[in-house]
Design a protein that fits this description.
Elements (H helix, E strand, L loop, with lengths): L7 E5 L2 E7 L3 H11 L4 E7 H22 L8 E7 L8 H13 L7 E6 L1 H13 L5 E6 L2 H7 L4 E6 L2 E8 L4 E5 L8 H18 L1 H9 L1 H9 L15 H23 L14 H11 L5 H18 L5 H13 L9 H4 L9 H10 L7 E4 L2 E3 L2 E2 L5 E4 H8 L2 E4 L9 E3 L5 H13 L3 E5 L5 H12 L3 E6 L4 E6 L13 E2 L4 H12 L12 E4 L10 H9 L4 E3 L8 E3 L6 E7 L4 H10 L5 E8 L6 H13 L5 E4 L6 E7 L9 E3 L4 H14 L2 E4 L13 H6 L5 E4 L4 E4 L11 E3 L7 H8 L5 E5 L11 H11 L3 E5 L2 E5 L11 E2 L5 H10 L7 E2 L12 H9 L3 E4 L1 H11 L10 E4 L6 H12 L2 E4 H9 L3 H27 L4 E4 L8 H13 L3 E5 L2 H9 L11 H15 L2 E4 L12 H18 L17 E5 L11 H4 L5 E5 ...
Parallel strand pairs: 2-9, 3-4, 3-5, 5-6, 6-9, 15-28, 16-27, 19-20, 23-24, 31-32, 35-36, 38-40, 38-41, 39-40, 41-42, 43-44, 43-50, 44-45, 45-46, 46-47, 47-48, 48-49, 51-52, 51-53, 54-56, 57-58, 57-60, 58-59, 60-63, 61-62, 63-64
Antiparallel strand pairs: 1-2, 7-8, 10-13, 11-12, 14-36, 14-37, 16-18, 17-18, 20-22, 21-22, 24-26, 25-26, 28-30, 29-30, 32-34, 33-34, 53-55, 55-56
Helix pairs in contact: 1-2, 3-4, 5-6, 5-9, 6-7, 6-9, 6-11, 7-12, 8-9, 10-11, 10-14, 11-12, 11-15, 16-17, 16-18, 16-21, 17-18, 18-20, 20-21, 22-26, 24-26, 28-39, 29-35, 30-31, 31-32, 38-39, 44-55, 44-56, 47-49, 47-55
The structure holds nicotinamide-adenine-dinucleotide and zinc ion.
């Protein structure tokens, strides 16, 4: 070898087998070949690495082996195998592939395997080596940092299974581990950071010195891998750069610790567990986020959480947590799950506390309600020499995103404490010391986001050196005397939402000087989204005017800024200082370093926060530079002009940072509000901070006793509940404390007006609004003022409990409300982590130092359980209130709804009139509108309280006018029951109202009233019912339209009240369900073919994203349909079909047409869908979580289809990502939908396996799993739940590869999944029966392979017995004369068949026997009564039948069909059913036997007299006797002329039967032939158009449709079947 190779060897398990260096490939070849002689060397790597490094290996190995040949023995072989990269290779299949390769190449026991790659290759190849030929030698050549410092060291090898990671493996030590750090130069930076997590971890548990090096050298370490080393630089020590040395020392340091631990504890008993620091929680997070988030990234978050647990236990100081956080951030690692890289992932929604604890429970190391966690005691040391047992409750509290404060008296009373270092002073001190000369030890520095950001930035600018002492309690700053440099190109200084840092650094960056080595020509400072809105304009204007080159890169006046390195010119500077004093401080702090002395003049009106300016000047003085404020020589008054001399700060050796006075306000306020005492021992009258005056100026005036010395403040609160409001307080000098004051004022008696805080509108959030909005949740009223607010205090007892406070990511909002929550039970502070900005361990201190208990609250699982039980899970009998404009048809709809539900209807106006004995008009006239509204409110309250069950209550249109009534309604809708807003187009309302006069007239145009009330109606209701276009109350609707309308009202109200949810029964195990996708821009285009289109399907999908109203037809590009258009579409659709609607807003990225960015609009439409009562709502899980949660909480009876569509073809059903999607979807959905794309047929098998495996999980939800594309059609055939189908009549398919319902049935049949069944008609004579035509037509239309035939027999004998016991028996119709005889052959009867005592339908049902076997039972049913009932309800509404004056029906005959007819009439609620039979005794027997002498049944013997007896109320007649047995007085029956005896025996039908004229009436003749029987003819001839005649054939059809559905589970395509049957029937006549 030409150049020497310097390797550093680390010993493990007694051998020097770890060799570290740079550019080691030749060294590796030489070492392996000489020390591990073999006939075959196999190098295994992945494609990524092969591309970069394989050639180099091949070259040196081939060359070396060439040289080795010629020694007699055959030349050893060098084989290479390249496998796909990524975790999926680490599987059983992956292992088998490698083994097959080795076997194929006849590798033997002496083979040496080389694993070149990351942890995946190392683990996999190591495991192969461990078992191949009972174990062969192998070497690790790690190429990722993670593999170098972690996975390659220790001998653990493993593969993954679908049950989890690393579950199968072995301990197998490699012969060598070659650590070639040069590989890191090609490693993606994210992978490098991934490995750094393990490096930081090792240092954190073991070696503080190492940690210090890591925390201060992140930039150099990154630089070492980012600058490629040329000519093998680094191979020898002589050629190694300083950066390379550093990198290697970091790696070696980390490996050495791991090697050491492994050596003393090889099989992981106690000590070795220490390397699990961060892994207990990290692994649980990883289990949820893999593969998107890398191991090290999860461990990084895990380390912080585990460190916080340690802090919560009082073991680790906040300094330790802060340093760890800063260090990990320095390597670009996420430190919390709210990091946008994580929180933006859909999977992040699964990161609930319960889920994480659950996963940790599975870990073999844990048992019972506690977990083993490595507890740090300080950086570099652990609490125990092993993992510590920690209770779940402690872990849960740390993991929770929200906090609940348990009210009570502080147990540490009297409290004495100090608060964290002041943020303002910390930031100033950092800048001063960094710019100063010499070393300064900063004590009590705040470890917070702000200071971390500031230090990181100063580091980046190479402005100073930072080091920690005293375990991090002291920061040692070595000042750079103002020398600063431009960060490398592409490196922006990121400041998060740290306002102070941003303002100070803006000027600091102008001090930066150009240098020839710069790669960038500007310094860029930027921040998060909120920071990018916060103002910095005036400062930039002033600096620009002074000659600095500063550009706004995005919004004018805000970050990000690009600052040119030109130095600060100095001289005269004018600055507008009315927005922020930080601008002033920023210039003051940097002023001494300008080229000329600066005179700073503050302009633009009132200077804000003078105390902070004074603080800056005071601190500058401590650092040796005296700025002076000018005074007006004439008046002696201070001017807003400052003179700052040139100079360099002199760092004092030690600087003690004062505690934060704003923070001190919280414990002091807690003392005030809880009537206890609190002393803050390092803030007093001498403080530099304005907020130090809070105790005196605010709390004392509210009734506390305050004692303050120069350095201490003590507050003693009055007894609880006795705080007094302060009439007016100007808080300009302590603006940050206003939130605390506001919280206290909420429970002080009287009004507190707080002024001088206008600037708080532009802080972390608009704090004034924030306080107003959050206080409102407690029921506390406030008034917003120009520069402050007024709080109207309330007694503690009157504040609302159970409030969840939103904190706007603002620490002060969170802490202020935690003060209030010490006296208000059950307050939840959301986003508890936002306190990190200034008091990261606030919650711990609240508990440990003040003595107020704090619990963790898992908002996610709070919502999850909330949704499981359903926020709107009201009782199914809960009354429904109707609201809406007058004239929308509330009464009409309400009455129909009540009768459909069998409930009582109340008109609230009538109720009021009866109650108060005065008409509404008169009431208004006499007492005025106000009195009327008050009376109306009282009535509303009464109805809510007293008629809470089984009522439909229609309210007056103006009920929403008063806020109090709106509150009552909202509360009802939220917790008790549905409130339906009945809506109708305004022009129709106007037309209708102009014709009406019962109500007092409006005093303003209707349209204005409408506009005002519309939003209130929506706000106060849970649902919208759209009344159809057209005037309902007039007779202008056709009877079919009216019937459709009635059906829809019944469907809507039964669904939403849960009386009968309109969900498809086919979404059940062992059933198949389908929905048709409507792809029209206007669904009405489908109506002419709606019956054909919906053949066989269980639901209709309304693709809202494809809807386009007429006005949008011409629009090119994205359109979003309006809510009113969508509502109209739903209303139209509802009038033509009762099928459930699947309401879908499919986004473009998921294969639809809805714009991806329009998430808000999508959620609004989905919400509208729920309000319209759609049965299924498709919710894409990629929508914002909060929105999804809201939908779930409002879904009521409807179901959520949680969906995920991957169109890329990249999603593989056997990859972990799919399960991740499934888990999220099954948390929010009642049904899960996952759609991928098939490239090959095999992809469908993978899908099938996936569906089968998740289907076995406990509580598995129904799954729609589909592959798109032609290759995926198989999956559409096999899918069972709600398979989307197309139809040949549709304009286009909703998705590629979609099949029609019929096609799928064919395919299922061919696959053997839908066997052909045989159906029969039993009876005699049946030769002319229409049943075969009916059913066979239906089967054919639906593509079902079944057949229906006649089985005519003399009696119920052998033939029938054989037929019903065949395996392919599908069902039978039974007709005369076997309706009773067949009963003994059946296993059981339905209730109806039992009651009627006759069977006309036999249904075979599959049942699971007690022993688990599958059996078949035969069920006897009776559909005759349903046929009769349907033919009546199609013509009469429930209110037509159940009239108040009493209602009557007549049944003629006393046989089996008569029983069905009576049963049908009774089920409709007919008041009295008269029964007539020629032989009266038979009728009496029937009533007695079948109906137990039911008193509402009356046997009559005189039809003529019936009309008189019923007083003309009879409006339903059903005849069940043969037509030949009837005769009419006017015209003799045709049969009578042929058969005289029949005439004598016939039933004489009088005309008076049809006397009823008051509404619709029906006469049904069950006689099948002729079509027009004497009875029907008589009805027609009676001259009464209100009577509708129903011929027997229609009843036959109706009952046949029911049979069809009972047998096949599918609706019969009535229209086509009916036409076919009738044509045939008429041809026969
Ligand atoms: N055995 C153990 O003790 C142990 C410890 C920790 C982790 N692990 C295992 O390690 C695996 C993760 O290892 P990993 O993080 O190294 O992932 P990895 O092996 O998947 O490598 C990460 C990616 O970087 C690519 N890559 C690797 N080296 C490269 C280089 N030099 N230049 C360019 N690209 C390169 C790879 O092709 C891959 O795409 C997991 O399976 C984990 O279970 C094992
Ligand atoms: Zn690890």
């Amino acid at each position: 070898m030409a150049d020497t190779t310097d390797v550093f060897k680390v010993s493990i398990l007694g051998k020097d087998s770890i060799h570290c260096g740079f550019h080691l490939i030749p060294y590796i070849a030489q070492t392996v070949l000489t020390t591990l002689p073999s006939s075959t060397y196999i190098l295994i790597t992945d494609t990524n690495i092969a591309k970069l490094h394989l050639a180099a290996f091949e070259e040196v190995f081939e060359a070396a082996l060439q040289g080795a040949s010629g020694h007699g023995s055959p030349k050893p072989r060098f084989l290479t195998l390249v496998i796909p990269p990524g975790e999926t290779s680490k599987s059983r299949e992956g292992k088998a592939n490698i083994e097959d390769f080795l076997l194929q190449h006849r590798c033997t026991r002496d083979s040496v395997v080389l694993a070149l790659g990351g942890g995946v290759i190392g683990d996999l190849v190591g495991f192969v080596a461990a078992t191949f030929m009972r174990g062969v030698k192998f070497c690790q050549i790690p190429t990722t940092l993670l593999a170098m410092v972690d996975s390659s060291v220790g001998g653990k090898t493993a593969i993954d299974t679908p049950h989890g990671k690393n579950l199968i493996g072995a301990f197998w030590q490699p012969e060598y581990i070659f650590i070639d750090a040069a590989f890191l130069e090609t490693l993606p930076p994210r992978e490098f950071s991934n490995g750094m997590a393990e490096v930081v971890k090792t240092a954190a548990i073991w070696n503080e010195e190492e940690f210090i090096s890591l925390e201060s050298h992140s930039a150099e370490i990154f630089a070492a891998i980012q600058t490629p080393s040329k000519n093998h630089a680094g191979r020898s020590k002589a050629t190694r750069s300083q950066a390379q040395e550093l990198l290697l020392s970091v790696i070696v340091g980390s490996i050495s610790v791991k090697a050491h631990i492994v050596t003393i504890d090889e099989r992981e008993t106690g000590l070795r567990n220490l390397v699990n620091f961060g892994h207990s929680i990290g692994h649980a997070i990883e289990a949820v986020l893999t593969p998107t988030i890398l191991h090290g990234e999860c461990v990084s978050i895990g380390m912080i959480l585990e460190a916080e647990i340690s802090r919560q236990m009082g073991i680790l100081s906040q300094v330790g947590v802060g340093r760890l956080t800063r260090c990990l951030k320095g390597y670009n690692l996420p430190v919390s799950v709210s990091d946008p890289r994580i929180s933006n992932l859909p999977a992040a929604r699964s990161l609930t506390v319960d889920k994480l604890l659950d996963i940790m429970r599975i870990d073999k190391k844990n048992s019972g309600p506690a977990k083993k966690i490595v507890i740090l005691s300080s950086i570099g040391a652990t609490y125990e020499p092993k993992a510590t047992v920690v209770a779940d409750s402690i872990i849960a509290k740390t993991l929770a995103e929200a906090a609940r404060v348990i009210p009570g008296v502080p147990t540490k009373n009297p409290v004495v404490m100090s608060t964290p270092g002041s943020k303002s002073i910390s930031n100033r001190a950092l800048v001063l010391a960094a710019l100063g000369q010499g070393t300064c030890k900063l004590r009590n520095l705040l470890h917070s986001d702000d200071t971390q950001v500031m230090m990181a930035a100063l580091n980046e600018l190479k402005g100073a050196n930072f080091a920690w002492e005293d375990g991090g309690e002291t920061l040692v700053v070595t000042g750079g005397q103002g020398s600063l440099s431009v960060p490398p190109k592409g490196k922006e200084i990121y400041l998060g939402n740290a306002g102070t840092a941003a303002r100070f650094l803006a000027t600091v960056c102008t001090l930066v000087q150009k240098s020839p080595n710069d790669t960038a020509d500007v310094t860029v400072i930027t921040g998060n989204a909120r920071m990018k809105q916060r103002p910095i304009g005036p400062l930039v204007t002033a600096l620009r005017a002074n000659g600095s080159g500063i550009d706004f890169l995005e919004g004018e006046g805000c970050l990000p800024l690009a600052i040119a390195p030109d130095g600060l010119k100095g001289g005269q500077i004018q600055l507008a200082a009315s927005v922020s004093s930080q601008y002033v401080s920023s210039i003051l702090l940097c002023a001494p370093y300008a080229s000329e002395p600066i005179t700073l003049e503050l302009i633009g009106g009132q200077v804000i926060s003078q105390p902070y300016i004074d603080m800056t000047i005071a601190m500058m003085k401590t650092f040796g530079i005296e700025a002076t404020r000018r005074t007006d020589p004439a008046t002696g008054k201070l001017l807003d002009i400052y003179d700052i001399p040139k100079g360099v700060y002199t760092n004092p050796p030690i600087y003690n940072i004062e505690s934060d006075a704003s923070s001190a306000t919280y414990p002091l306020a807690i003392a005030a509000i809880t009537g206890t005492s609190c002393t803050i021992d390092n803030i007093g009258t001498a403080s530099l901070q304005g907020d130090a005056k809070f105790a005196k100026e605010v709390l004392e005036k509210m009734g506390c006793k305050v004692t303050q010395t120069e350095t201490e403040t003590t507050v003693q609160g009055p007894p609880i509940g006795q705080l007094k409001a302060i009439e007016e307080v100007d808080m300009e000098i302590m603006t940050d404390a206003f939130l605390t004051a506001t919280a206290v004022a909420a429970v002080a008696s009287g009004k507190t007006r707080i002024l001088g805080i206008a600037n708080q509108r532009v802080k972390e959030c608009n704090r004034i609004r924030a306080m107003i909005d959050q206080l409102a949740k407690f029921g506390v009223d406030t008034v917003e003022l120009d520069d402050g607010l007024e709080v109207i205090g309330k007694p503690i007892a009157e504040l609302k409990r159970g409030v969840s406070v939103h904190c706007y990511d603002d620490h002060r909002v969170a802490m202020a409300f935690s003060v209030l929550s010490t006296v208000i039970e059950n307050t939840i502070i959301e986003e508890k982590r936002c306190v990190e900005k200034t008091w990261p361990n606030w919650w711990d201190d609240l508990e440990n130092k003040i003595g107020i208990k704090v619990e963790g609250v898992d908002l996610a699982s709070l919502h999850a359980t909330g949704s499981a039980s359903g926020v709107q899970q009201h009782d199914s009998a809960a009354s429904v209130f109707l609201i809406g404009m007058r004239g929308t048809g509330k009464t009409f709809v309400g009455e129909l709804a009540a009768s459909a539900l069998g409930w009582t209807f109340i008109d609230a106006d009538q109720y009021l009139e009866t109650k108060l004995r005065i008409g509404v008009r008169e009431l208004v006239h006499q007492k005025g509108w106000v009195a009327f509204r008050e009376a109306e409110l009282q009535i509303l309250k009464e109805l809510v309280a007293e008629k809470s069950q089984s009522h439909i209550i229609s309210l007056g249109g103006g009920i929403v006018e008063t806020p109090a009534a709106r509150e009552v309604l909202k509360e009802y809708a939220a917790n008790k029951g549905p409130i339906v807003h009945v809506a109708r187009p305004i022009d129709e309302i106007v037309k209708y109202l102009n014709a009406e006069s019962a109500r007092p007239a409006y005093e303003e145009p209707i349209i204005d009233v409408f506009r005002r009330r519309e939003p209130w109606f929506t706000e106060c209701s849970s649902h919208d019912f759209i009344n159809p276009v057209g005037d309902l109350t007039s007779g202008s609707l056709s009877s079919a339209q009216a019937a459709a309308n009635r059906n829809e009202i019944a469907r809507f109200f039964k669904h939403l009240t849960r009386v009968r949810p309109n969900l498809t029964h086919n979404v059940e195990p062992d059933r198949r369900s389908y929905f048709l996708c409507l792809t029209y821009p206007d669904v009405r285009q489908a109506f002419p073919y709606i019956e054909e289109l919906t053949e066989g399907v269980d639901a209709l999908e309304l693709r809202v994203d494809l809807l386009k109203s007429e006005k949008d037809y011409e629009t090119i590009g994205d359109t979003i349909p309006s809510i009113s258009y969508v509502a109209e579409q739903v209303a139209h659709l509802r009038r033509v079909t009762g099928l459930p609607i699947v309401f879908t807003v499919r986004t473009k990225s998921q294969g639809g047409a809805f714009p991806d960015k329009a998430e808000k609009e999508a959620l609004t439409l989905l919400n509208a869908g729920l309000r319209l009562g759609v049965e299924y709502l498709d919710v894409e899980i990629s929508l914002p979580e909060k929105g999804i949660r809201e939908l779930v909480s409002k879904k009521g009876t409807s179901q959520i289809v949680a969906s995920w569509h991957d169109w890329s073809g990249g999603m593989k059903w056997n990859a972990p990502g799919v399960k991740e999607k499934y888990d999220i979807a099954s948390r929010v959905g009642d049904i899960v939908k996952i759609v991928g794309k098939a490239e090959t047929l095999q992809d469908n098998f993978a899908l099938y396996d996936f569906a089968a495996s998740v289907g076995k999980l406990p509580g598995a939800k129904p799954l729609i799993a589909i592959n798109m594309g032609g290759a995926g059609q198989m999956s559409r055939i096999l899918n069972t739940t709600l398979t989307p189908v197309s139809h040949p009549l549709l304009p286009n398919k909703a998705a590629p590869g979609q099949l029609s319902f019929k096609q799928i049935q064919h395919a299922l049949h061919l696959l053997g999944l839908l066997p052909a069944k045989k159906f029969y008609l039993f009876g005699t004579p049946i030769g002319h029966s229409m049943s075969p035509t009916l059913h066979n037509t239906g089967f054919k239309l639906l593509g079902l392979p079944h057949n229906y035939e006649l089985l005519e027999t003399k009696d119920v004998g052998e033939e029938i017995k054989v037929a019903i016991s065949e395996p392919e028996f599908g069902g039978a119709s039974v007709t005369i004369p076997f309706k009773l005889d067949v009963i003994p052959l059946l296993d059981r009867l339905t209730d109806a068949a039992e009651k009627i005592g006759a069977v006309n339908t036999v249904i075979p049902k599959t049942v699971t026997n007690a022993d688990g076997g599958i059996g078949k039972v035969l069920v006897g049913d009776n559909t005759d009564w349903l046929g009769i009932r349907a033919s009546i309800t199609q013509r009469l509404s429930a209110s037509d039948i159940q009239r108040q004056q009493g209602s009557a029906g007549l049944v003629i005959g006393a046989g089996g069909t008569a029983r069905a007819a009576i049963y049908a009439l009774k089920s409709l609620g007919v008041g009295t059913v008269y029964v007539y039979n020629r032989t009266k005794r038979k009728a009496e027997e029937l009533v007695e036997q079948a109906f137990g002498g039911d008193k509402t049944l009356k046997v009559v013997d005189d039809l003529e007299g019936l009309a008189r007896e019923t007083g003309g109320t009879l409006n339903i007649i059903v005849s069940t006797v043969p037509a030949s047995a009837t005769t009419t007085a006017s015209s003799p029956s045709p049969s009578s002329s042929n058969d005289r005896t029949a005439v004598a025996a016939g039933v004489a039908l009088p005309k008076s039967l049809f006397d009823y004229r008051d509404g619709p009436a029906v006469v049904v003749d069950m006689a099948y032939k002729p079509e027009e029987t004497p009875l029907l003819r008589l009805a027609k001839e009676s001259g009464s158009s209100n009577w509708a005649g129903v011929p027997g054939v229609e009843v036959l059809l109706e009952q046949g449709y029911v049979q069809f559905e009972l047998w096949t589970g599918r609706k019969c395509p009535k229209e086509q079947v009916g036409t076919t049957v009738l044509t045939r029937y008429r041809a026969q006549e």
